[in-house]
Every structure is written in structure tokens, then in C-alpha cells.
Amino acid sequence: MAEDSRSRIMDYYSTQITKLIGELSKLPGIGSKSAQRLAFHIINMPKEQAEHLSAAIMEARQNVRYCRECCTLTDEELCPICKSDRRDHKTIMVVENTRDLAAYEKTGKYDGVYHVLHGAISPMLGIGPGDIRLKELMTRLQKEETQEVIIATNSNLEGETTAMYISKLVKPSGIRVTRIASGVPVGGDLEYIDEVTLLRALDGRTEL
Ligand code: ZN
Asked: Domain 70-207 carries which CATH code?
């Protein structure tokens, strides 16, 4: 029924507008109503602003890649965090995605480095250890003098499964493995948690 009403709405618009609405509605969290609202907003923008928007999309898409070291999204071979000699390279915090990294960076209180997995293990969704950036983490631990791996995956089932898996892989090497405290709400996306909660979770981390 949703499809039906969508195609009916689109018939009223010109092909170009319909195309724009169609592309916008493919974005996560954007339903057909939001897509229409955004499309009309874009059409009413000063031409220059619309050009900036489309150029920013293209440039980001073309230049953004994974950091050679920590796998976060960056536009250089090595991200600014991995490049910095003011960071403690012996402490690696493992997060599920670049947004989680950004959440910890916003607190300004963590001075170690990161490793971004780009997902979590989920047998239900068919996502195995080989589908996230775990191999890269293990390679990294072999060549760097790491003292501690802090596992900061989400506290939902996938995040916990991933934490246990990493712990089993890393611990035999003698590197200290810790897990952030579960002050983080179950199933909560790290990105939406306030800084105080994040810092409390980090300070209260426990040995695995
Ligand atoms: Zn990096």
C-alpha cells in the first residue's frame, strides 16, 4: 500500500523531481514524506548551495577511504589520530563504527588510539568474524607493542558476542583486554550516549 500511494504521489511531479525524491528515499531513515520535503527544500535552495551539496557528496565519496592502521574513515592514508605522536599508541579502543569513535573523541578525554570494526558479529544476520575488520586488528597487534585493548562495542547481543570473540583471540598473546562498563544502556548506540556516561563506562572498564 505504501508503494501504491508513493507512485501515485510521484505522478504529480515532473520526472526530475520524482527522480530526486526517489534517490533521497533510498537513504536510511528517510521515508517518502521526508524525501519529498527534502527534495522541495533542495529545489528551493540558491543554486550555489545545491552545487556545494552535490560537490560535497561526490568529493566525500571519491576521497574517503579506510585508514591503513585503524580502519576508520578518513581522506588520507593514515588518519589524524594514528598519525599523532600525542596519542598513546599502546592503548587501542575497539569500536563498531566511525560514529562511535567520534563519540569518544568528542569527550576529549581519551588519548589512546582506536580500531574500527565496521560492524559486529551477528550469527542471526549471517555476519561472521570474517565480515568485520578483525583480521586487521590481529595483524596490528602482532606488529605493535600494544599494552591494552579496550573493547567498546555496543552492549547488545551482537556487541557482547563480538567482545567475547575478540577477548578469546587476544588474551593468549598476554595483552590486557578490558571491556567498557555496562553503564551504557543495553542496545544503546554509543553515538547517542552523553559524554558523562561514556567516560564513566570507560573509567569503570573491567578485565576480560
Ligand atoms: Zn587511523
From this structure: 3.40.1360.10
* This prediction's pTM: 0.76
**73 Cα: distance to centroid of ligand 1 (angstroms):** 8
Q: Could you tell me if 70 and 82 are in contact, meaning their C-beta atoms sit under 8 angstroms apart? A: yes
Nearest to 196 by CA among 124, 130, 97, 103: 103
Can you tell me which residue has the cell 558476542? 161
CA of 83 to the centre of ligand 1 (A): 7
**Full pLDDT tens readout for the chain, 208 residues:** 445 555 555 567 788 999 999 999 999 889 999 999 999 999 999 999 999 999 999 999 998 999 999 999 999 999 999 999 999 999 999 999 998 999 899 888 899 999 999 999 998 889 999 999 999 999 999 887 899 999 999 888 999 999 999 999 999 999 999 999 875 554 556 666 778 888 888 888 989 8
Instruction: Considering the domain delimited by 2-63, tell me its CATH architecture.
Output: Orthogonal Bundle (1.10)
> From the CA of 123, how far away is ligand 1's center (Å)?
28
Q: How far is the CA of 208 from the centre of ligand 1 (A)?
A: 25
